[in-house]
Amino acid sequence: MINLLERAKDFKERTALVSNGRAYSYNTLGTASRNVASAVLNGKSDLKEARIAFLVPPSFEYTAVQWGIWAAGGIAVPLCVLHPLPSIQYVIEDTQATMVIVHPDFAGFLAPLESVSGVPIVPLETILREQTTPLPDIDKERRAMILYTSGTTNKPKGVVTTHANIEAQITALVSSWEWQKDDYILNILPLHHVHGIINVMSCALWSGACCEFLPKFDAQVVWEIIGSGRLTVFMAVPTIYYKLIALWEQAPEEEQKKMAESASKLRLMVSGSAALPVPVLEKWRDITGQTLLERYGMTEIGMGLSNSYSGERRPGHVGLPLPSVHIRLVNADHNPVGRNEAGEIQIKGPSVFKEYWGKPEATKNAFTHDGWFKTGDIAMHNNGLYKILGRDSVDIIKSGGYKISALEIEDVLRGHTAIDDCAVVGLPDEEWGEIIAACLVTKDPNIEEIALSQWLKARLPSYKIPRKFIFTKELPRNVLGKVTKNEVKNQF
Ligand code: MLC
Ligand code: AMP
């Protein structure tokens, strides 16, 4: 199994996690994880890749549950605390989860699922009780985790990674970014995506460092924690840096100086999950003296490309392949491109995922016949470093660092009785990267945006809800009848 629980034994009484105002040592985390493993095994000798879903906010308990599932031979399926019930139900049913572990704050919210899906919902408290069972030996090639990511299909797909994949994703970053046991990082990201799970939490715990959880991003609190001087490393999506800059700009001059000085002391600040706008990089550098290290990654591959920790960090670029990552750029004819030519990023290596859960056809289509994973991102090699130019699909939107499928939102919108047809697009936005916009063909000329947003909130998480609407009699289409999304964008 992933070498996290075993390594924890070496770090003993060092602080692993700070959660809800309490510090937890590596020994405490190890014991809690073994209690969880014994509880989920419930008399069995090995879970044999049973899927265990868990709805637990970022916390000590989250980590103990994740490690416990791994130690018992299960597949960890972290659920998103921001999702409405239908999105959660989809993941539980798609993974055929055999159990859902639920934090007390979400027990009432999840309760209706037990009868609908027939899946046992188990309170977190019972899972954490002290108990011991012999734990199985887990081969690293076995499946460890499923994370859901949007693609060019309407429903998100489950990305399956093995213990070996996860270990490769962690170790590439630990060595490149020189993680040490004296590091201290703040996690402000959701823990159902790789950025928070791998880059922040798992890299810290691999290294014997400390990870503090802030359950929800709040720019004011983040600045206070930076001001405390305890952080050495910070990682976030570009939107978060934008929001931190906005708050700094509102502060009185004396305060600004203090904020900037404390931020200047961190050894590393990283941006990723979406393109870091050069003005944001420059502004952050002007304020703090820190040049953000931009890197490129994806749920299916962990991290692929990174600017240098100790060398050049070129604005607007994502650097070079991380250790063990093989990369090539290919054109539409599947041939490698020349220097300074654009091509699709394709990736090979031990960090690349195993499969889309239950979707052999989608898995096959995601790889070339000779085993390269097709990312769908377009890049060029520009004077020694890679630069991301965009994506090959207009149907994928990146907003606040979340990847969102336009088709998924269209599918939901078409379920509204007043909507005949629709087209969803991403519009460039300084703060969010892109914001979601919907062009609607409706029967009801009086349909209200507020009422529509409320209706959507019951069906989609907040970050997938369109922020702009326009109403039209007909969607623009090409001669083949396909909606021309670039024209829709122009209409906004
Ligand atoms: C929220 N709001 C949005 C929005 N999301 N408006 C436009 N577009 C969006 N996407 C609005 C809300 O409606 C609300 O408005 C206000 O913003 C605050 O909402 P919130 O929910 O409190 O937002 P906040 O917590 O500030 O969220 C911002 C954020 C969040 C940046 C912290 O989006 C986030 O956690 N992003 C990270 C996602 C992530 O981890 N991605 C990694 C994927 S892995 P009002 O009017 O009600 O106040 C990956 C691979 C890799 O990509 O390379 O890493
Ligand atoms: P996800 O599926 O949520 O893991 O999102 C992965 C996608 O985020 C990639 O395919 C890219 O499109 C995008 N992405 C990640 N990092 C960067 C970056 N530094 N610059 C531009 N796009 C990025």
Distinctive features:
single chain, 492 residues, alpha/beta, GMP Synthetase, Chain A, domain 3, five-stranded mixed β-sheet, four-stranded mixed β-sheet, 16 helices, 34% helix, globular, binds malonyl-coenzyme A, binds adenosine monophosphate
Tell me about this structure:
The structure is a single chain. The protein is an alpha/beta fold and 492 residues long. It is built from 16 helices and 25 strands. A five-stranded mixed beta sheet has the order 11-12-13-14-15. It has a four-stranded mixed beta sheet with strand order 2-1-10-9. A four-stranded parallel beta sheet has the order 4-3-5-6, with helices on both faces. Helix 2 crosses helix 3 (60-71) and helix 9 packs across helix 10. Adenosine monophosphate is lined by residues 149, 193, 272-275, 294, 296-299, 318, 375, 377, 388, 391, 398, 403.
Secondary-structure blueprint of this entry?
Layout lengths: L3 H8 L3 E5 L2 E4 H16 L9 E5 L4 H12 L3 E4 L6 H11 L3 E4 L4 H11 L3 E3 H5 L14 E7 L7 E6 H14 L7 E4 L6 H14 L2 E4 L5 H10 L4 E4 L1 H13 L2 H12 L3 E4 L6 H11 L4 E6 L3 E5 L13 E2 L4 E5 L12 E6 L6 E2 L3 H7 L6 E10 L2 E7 L4 E4 L2 E4 H8 L5 E11 L3 E10 L6 H9 L10 E5 L12 H7 L1
Parallel strand pairs: 1-10, 3-4, 3-5, 5-6, 9-10, 11-12, 12-13, 24-25
Antiparallel strand pairs: 1-2, 7-8, 8-18, 13-14, 14-15, 16-17, 17-19, 19-20, 21-22, 23-24
The structure holds malonyl-coenzyme A and adenosine monophosphate.
The site of malonyl-coenzyme A (MLC) has 26 residues, from helix 8, helix 10, strand 13 and strand 22.
